[in-house]
Write a structure and sequence with these properties.
Blueprint lengths: L1 E11 L19 E10 L2 E7 L1 E2 L1 H4 L31 E2 L9 E4 L4 E4 L1 E6 L8 H8 L4 H6 L4 H9 L3 H17 L2 E7 L6 H17 L3 E9 L10 H18 L5 E6 L6 H13 L3 E6 L7 H7 L4 E4 L5 H7 L5 E4 L1 H7 L6 H6 L5 E2 L13 H10 L5 H8 L1 H6 L17 E4 L7 H4 L6 E6 L2 E2 L3
Bound molecules: N-(iminomethyl)-L-glutamic acid and fe (iii) ion.
The site of N-(iminomethyl)-L-glutamic acid has 13 residues, from helix 4.
Length: 453
């Protein structure tokens, strides 16, 4: 089945097929093509190029598709029974075939769907009560220390059936797809017992199997010490290493392993223990580091070849140095900084140091109750002073890298999955983060199929 998107005003985010991530100055540019078409076959981008309006079309003879273009090297399908009137006379460098489906982009942008490489969207209920505590002045750490926070979510999750958890989570999956997210990494970490962690990971697997969005599962048993282990942190770490990880690996439930390596949560030593155990099972780490303090989490992540180290609100030059020459993607979560009122991290310094930067939503009930990647892109510009191009790259190809899918997603590239956003006509790329609440998304296409009207 072939789909042709025509009448594209700007095709944005074009990259060669061998680019896995963009770093330093490479982040300054987004390759675009004006007046383009794009062809999708079996969910994959197979072709794109500049569309030419045939002379006959400009004479108003739009009914002559297949005639006016006869002299072209590879003409629009003769006959063109299924070609919509508006597309007739547009020359594609492709044979449309008679069963092709046509989508009119109406002069809008077509860009890669966002990849959100850090979320916690499988959770039960919400934490709107803590929102009041926060407004009243309590910090994230204070709420957690009172038994709220992650432990509050763990209690709610424990009391929720697997089916119900799936249904609640799917509401958020549909929400983020409609906002243009085409790939999402989802963490466990609200279970904190063997059974509840497995329950979360099974729900993530079910989302993977049933939703058109690309999903990666991350085992975050070390998100907080479970209630039953209060005051016995090292025993809880042993539980993660010796009971949770083997079960998770045996059932093939996780693509990644994560640790919340930060003040009041897990130490560098705890983290090393978990990462070395995960390495035995061949599970790649992604680390929560430096949200609340300069924790050493970046260095330990780099040491274990983490795919990403995330948060980084608290950064010294030592973290920048540690990341140089590594495979690890520094990932910042401006939605969390915004919601908690904590620093935004030094994304610009990272880029100036020649490093890549990714921006993800951190969608979760405690520190970032939003999965809107356009807002993330806007915060990247407004609060981190990234250019629109840097922010765009940070939310697409670099987040694709940070979740291990940049060979298949994150750019307009022949051979990649057709996960695309079609927007209304826009004056420029900058308009996307600049006018960040304007509803510009016309259509979201995942695996070549529209998931929105
Ligand atoms: O990334 N920092 C740790 N984990 C989440 C918050 C989880 C929660 O509060 O529920 C985060 O911000
Ligand atoms: Fe997180």
């Amino acid at each position: 089945m072939k789909t042709i998107i025509y009448n594209i005003g700007t095709l944005a985010g074009i990259l060669p097929s061998d680019v896995r991530r963009l770093e330093g100055e490479q982040m300054n540019h987004v390759e675009c093509m004006e007046n383009a078409y794009l062809v999708i076959e079996d969910g994959i981008i197979t072709e794109y190029g500049p569309a030419v309006i045939s002379p006959l079309a400009s004479l108003g003879r739009n009914d002559s598709a297949g005639v006016g273009i006869k002299n072209r090297a590879t003409p629009l399908a003769a006959g063109g029974r299924s070609i919509p009137k508006e597309a007739k006379g547009v020359v594609f460098n492709t044979d449309a075939g008679t069963d092709a489906e046509f989508i009119d982009a109406q002069g809008g942008f077509v860009m890669p769907a966002f990849c959100d490489s850090h979320t916690h969207i499988v959770y039960a209920g919400c934490r709107d009560g803590e929102f009041r505590d926060k407004i009243a002045g309590l910090s994230y750490e204070e709420i957690a220390a009172r038994g709220g926070g992650i432990l509050n979510s763990a209690d709610l999750l424990h009391a929720t059936s697997e089916d119900e958890l799936y249904e609640q989570s799917m509401v958020r999956v549909r929400e983020i797809m409609a906002m243009g997210t085409g790939a999402v990494e989802i963490k466990s970490g609200y279970g904190l017992t063997v059974e509840d962690e497995l329950k979360m990971l099974r729900v993530i697997r079910r989302i993977k199997e049933t939703a058109p969005i690309t999903v990666k599962a991350n085992f975050l048993g070390a998100h907080a010490v479970g209630r039953a282990y209060k005051g016995r942190q090292s025993e809880y770490v042993d539980l993660v290493c010796n009971e949770m990880l083997p079960r998770v690996a045996e059932e093939g439930l996780a693509d990644f392993v994560d640790v919340f390596c930060d003040a009041g949560f897990f130490t560098v030593e705890d983290t090393e223990k978990i990462l070395s155990k995960a390495a035995e099972y061949g599970i790649t780490p992604k680390i929560h580091a430096n949200e609340l303090e300069v924790s050493g989490g970046v260095q330990v992540g780099v040491k274990y070849n983490a795919l990403s180290v995330d948060h980084l609100e608290m950064t010294t030059d030592a973290e920048i140095e540690a990341l140089r020459g590594s495979v690890t993607m520094p990932t910042m979560l401006p939605g969390c900084s915004f919601f908690l009122g904590i620093p935004f991290g030094r994304a610009k310094d990272y880029i100036e140091a020649g490093l890549p930067v990714a921006l993800a939503s951190d969608y979760n009930p405690g520190s970032s109750p939003s999965g809107n990647m356009r807002f993330v892109m806007a915060l990247g510009c407004i609060r981190m002073r990234l250019t629109p191009e840097q922010s765009f790259n940070a939310c697409t190809i670099n987040t694709a890298y940070a979740m291990g899918v940049s060979d298949q997603l994150g750019s307009i590239t022949v051979g990649k999955k057709a996960n695309l956003i079609i927007t209304k006509p826009l004056p420029s790329l900058a308009f996307i983060p600049y006018s960040h609440q304007t509803p510009i998304i016309e259509k979201v296409i995942l695996n070549g199929i529209a998931v929105t009207k």
